[in-house]
Protein 1
Amino acid sequence: MGGALKRMTSCEMEITHERERRGRTGSDEWMEKENGVRLQPEQANMPSELETAMESLILVFHRYASRDGRTGTLNRRELRLLMENELSNFLRCQKDPAAVDKIMKDLDTNGDGQVDFEEFVSLVVGLSIACERCYQLRVKNEGRK
Ligand SMILES: [Ca+2]
């Protein structure tokens, strides 16, 4: 992870902790003042859609990564299980029976035989980019009708 991203992430954590402690953030107050929008306390504390998606990513990874003694990384079996359960539609489209092994090899950039969270995220990013392309094509085709 790059230095800037790391700094951003730790900054994000501080904001989250501060938010948990105070229940409200300065930006909530700013929004109220500027826009006359009064956020309900529950609403102000609710994670956004994107924050929820990020949390899911972390939780799913760790659920599978902690199956063997070594937590924090996916071994080949854990990655296979994760893909079979959580990416079943994608896996079904793969004609190659060795697809998971090939993906494992691609993801394991540091070659330690384990997939850590950073390596795992690159799979999710790659698939998301492919899905977004399909989404764009669909929107384009619907526009033609
Ligand atoms: Ca690795």
Protein 2
Amino acid sequence: MQIRIVANGQHPDAVAALLAELPEWFGIEAANHAYVEEARSLPTVVAIHDAQVVGACLVRRHFPEAAEIELLAVRSSHHRHGIGRQILERVEADARAHGVELLQVKTLGPSAQYEPYERTRRFYRAVGFLPLEEHLHLWANDPCLVMVKPLA
Ligand SMILES: CC(C)(COP(=O)(O)OP(=O)(O)OC[C@H]1O[C@@H](n2cnc3c(N)ncnc32)[C@H](O)[C@@H]1OP(=O)(O)O)[C@@H](O)C(=O)NCCC(=O)NCCS
């Protein structure tokens, strides 16, 4: 699959379309609205296929050394074609170039026992993230797993 990775633009409409297509992962309307608002200003890396955005990642810098993947989504029809991996490779390269040494992502924890996010955690493990801690009270209703990847 021919994919082009593009960084540094803003793609709120494409992010909204991706979220709408992935209800098993992004089923909370208020949270989706917040992601789309964030997509208006946060650095975004997108994957383009046939002139369409098929994947997107929003990145938030917390400290000079630390950044967070705020959102990562690939169109479901395009899963398992290496697009998530390629997007993250670009995110990581750009982060390293700006001095970031540690990348984190917060995702649904294993104690939720929800299968779609088991796939998500397998993806993050496959691309080098390690589970750091599962917080049971950080999010209102769900366990939150913090995963980290050293970039140095
Ligand atoms: C998670 C997600 C971004 C991964 O993107 P992707 O393009 O499908 O993943 P890739 O093809 O780059 O996968 C890279 C590796 O991760 C692992 N992996 C990915 N999906 C997997 C799955 N469903 N089951 C097991 N391993 C998986 C594999 O090792 C894979 O390499 P391989 O295909 O050569 O075996 C995508 O599936 C997605 O958008 N999921 C829904 C939303 C989501 O979970 N976002 C993250 C929220 S925190």
